[in-house]
Amino acid sequence: MILPIYGYGYPVLKKEAEPISKDYPELEQLIENMWETMYKASGVGLAAPQIGLPIRLFLVDTVQIMEEGQKEMGIKKVLINAQKIEEVGEPWAYEEGCLSIPDVRGDVERLPQLRIRYQDENFEEHEEVFTGINARVIQHEYDHIDGILFTEHLKPIKKRLIKRKLENIRKGKVKADYRMKFIGK
Fold first, then answer.
1. Name one GO molecular function term (predicted).
2. pTM for this one?
């Protein structure tokens, strides 16, 4: 089932999410719905707060954005109760966007290497190191479960330039090619 994506302005997007256990109600169905929702919206990641749930769950699929012949370098994962352990390297800027903030993009500086501990959909524990675009997508989604939006990482001048767009999204005055829920509607 395709779920509505919560637009900028919803308090759940600014709240630190809570850990879950394997007896979380209908978790398997929720994850399936999140994959379907993410793909319908042409996203590479989706966090539970973006569908209105303040829980530490997100999924990523970078395989779909990898160049032909490099698909095996991408990742497709469900991350539950993730905890960052370490981020290292020289910051690099890359233009990011967000399904909860349609039509807004901006350069975000992130460190290129991330070590993270998480549980998969079977609640098996993992600790892995991710680099490059895989690290970036995980960092973006991880921010969501910590109540941080990519717009908070933008330079001050860019923040001023997008202020009106953000207010329009809050009011529901934006078009998206996927189902959304706005606080102002």
1. peptide deformylase activity
2. 0.96
Listed in sequence order, the residues at least 6 apart from 96 whose beta carbon sits closer than 8 Å to its beta carbon are 105, 106, 107, 108, 136, 140, 150
Q: Which listed residue (16, 68, 86, 141) is catalytic? A: 141
Q: What is the pLDDT of residues 83-99, one digit of tens each?
A: 999 999 999 999 999 99
Catalytic site residue 141? yes
Which residues sit in the known binding site?
98, 140, 144
Q: Strands 101-110 and 92-98: what pairing?
A: antiparallel
Q: Which domains does the chain carry? A: 5-178 (3.90.45.10)
Question: CA quadruple 171, 15, 74, 114: dihedral positive or negative?
Answer: positive
121-174: pLDDT as tens digits: 999 999 999 999 999 999 999 999 999 999 999 999 999 999 999 999 999 999
Phi-psi category of residue 167: left, alpha or beta, with phi > 0 → left and psi -120 to 50 → alpha: alpha
Q: What share of the chain is helix, strand, coil (3-state, %, to 5)?
A: 35, 30, 35
Give the residue numbers of the binding site for Fe cation: 98, 140, 144
CB proximity list for 103: less than 8 A, separation 6 or greater = 165, 169, 174, 175
